[in-house]
Write a structure and sequence with these properties.
With about 130 residues, the chain is α/β, with parallel strands linked by helices. The chain is built from five helices and five strands, in the order βαβαβαβαβα.
Length: about 130
């Protein structure tokens, strides 16, 4: 009997409570530990307290948007390698990549395929499905 895999922590950052709810339920069912934040400012506070394994990040949010949040994460030596998946409908993929200088690991357009999102998380974190 092999060792059980460690439960990966996912931080969902989106100002839409319904999106957070759908993602939380789906990821919890897939055996991820899930934290939530409704904007980038709160996300950065949560990351500084308890760093997740990966962040799912919306672009357009109040107080601090996803582009700025990603920039701050990638500038910080303690979080610059933290994987970020943008999950958004407001900007085209190419613009997000350009504005984040290619530092986002993935981009999925909302409403998105939740199965694809799980596959990308597993691939980035090197988790066998």
């Amino acid at each position: 009997m092999g060792a059980e895999r460690r439960i990966a922590k996912v931080l969902i950052v989106d100002d839409d409570e319904n999106v957070r709810d759908v993602l939380r339920r789906m990821l919890t069912k897939k055996k991820f530990a899930v934290e939530e934040a409704e904007n980038g400012r709160i996300a950065l506070e949560k990351v500084s307290q308890d760093k997740p394994d990966i962040i799912i990040l919306d672009v357009t949010m109040p107080e601090m948007d996803g582009i700025e949040t990603c920039r701050r994460l990638k500038e910080n030596p303690g979080t610059k390698t933290l994987p970020v998946i943008f999950f958004s409908s407001t900007l085209p993929r190419e613009e997000v990549i350009q504005r984040t200088k290619g530092e986002a690991d993935e981009y999925i357009e909302k409403p998105g395929d939740l199965k694809e999102l799980c596959e990308k998380i597993n691939k980035i974190l090197k988790i066998s499905p």
